[in-house]
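Z., the sequence and structure:
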Amino acid sequence: MKKIFNKSILGLLAVLLLVSCRQEELRVRFPASMPVFDSISVAENAIVYGDSISLSLGVSDPLTPLSTLEIKVVVNDEIIASESIRTKGYSAAYTQRYGVPFVAHMPDGAEVEVHVSSINIEGTKKDTVIFNTIASRPPIPTIFMVTNTSTAELKLVDAGNYIYEATGLTFGNEISFRLVTKVDRFKKPDWKNAENIAFGWVNNGLGLVYPVIEGTSVKSITGEMITLSDPTLVGFNKVTLDLYNFTVKGDGDKLVPATSMDVSTFGTVELSSTNNLNVTTKENWKKGQMYLGKGTVMTFSGITDLSNSLTPDFFDVKTATTAEFLGETGIYTVYYLPRLNYLWVEQPTAVYPDALWLCGVGFGPHKTPHEKSSSWNWNTPLEYKYCRKVADGVYEAVFYAEHVIDPVPTAESWRLTFSAKFFHQRNWGGEEDARTYTMPNSLLFAPTDSDKGNFVGTADFAAVPGVYRFTINTKTKTTSFVKIN
């Protein structure tokens, strides 16, 4: 049967080849010839970026019908416009305007190259390039940075590289603004001035923006306002605009890591926490943001018994009122729960590989008296644990852990156990699968039939509740789970 099948295939291929050859034989063939540009020109010999050029051409082929006209407009080796036009018959005429935009990397006095190709139906091509137009950058001696409440002038400080600067500013560490070349008598953007050149965020980068005018009113502005943000700064005191590369950046004095923390100065927020028994408690927390520095020894106020109130993975208590911060330098959200006299730190938007998050049941703050508070939720730090990065791919968390085995198992018995998983962010999604890790000891295992990917307590763990340091190495796929109290 296989031979019959192969013969059938060969027969079909032979028929298709024969049909193709006959079609090729029947196709009308034209004499060898080449298209000719009877006329071709670009009217403008000088423009400013933002203007347009007008192309006019006539093309013909005395012996062979035309097929396609291909056009590319190039400036500084970058294609800024291109199109392909179908042409029919033995001659064609075409006119078109092409905008030459003011964008990054446009040098002053650059040639605008128009590359034109005409192809006939036999595939013969005629190429030509027109060098008739010189493009210049618009003169911008100064530019204004306009926020919702103020206006500052950026001066040209490096004409050769088109660098503008505004110094002596007194902004906070986040500012939003537009850049314009013309302002009105109120120091606001003069959107009705045709000579105004304005910049904003366009497709996540610096670009030109324009007013949308209805009648005599400005309805809206295209693009978005430029936003600069750096939480590690005291504030922005300098803004630099690079109008060759189309970039803008801000500078300012760096924050100095805090050397003291007074929780009584934090704002009060009402938060709800749900524990492992599905009981929700609403209570007042203290919450603030601080710039904390690695290795900085801080003095604490408004909080007592530091050894019992500061988590050991982030703080090394030195005296009754001081502790060294162990985390990486940065902006942290600090939570303090007066009821427990306990303090947490976290960077809510930190993601792997900068941080890992632990969520599950069976653990709580390291303080005494011990209590479990986690619940497979992400509402407050009682329910999850922000892990400290201690090395590349290595993270640790210190907490009280207790694994209870229900003597009479029910559908809700899982609430009594220790079962947790490491996540790549403070929420569901990317996670580490415990089944791919070497178990640290006889206290934990990774079930395969249920709780897939969780680190789950064993019968041995049920006998040794306490404060543990859980370390995970995502590079070597190893873990450590050590009792430290």
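The first helix runs from residue 2 to 26. The longest strand covers residues 280-292.

Let me know what you think.
H.
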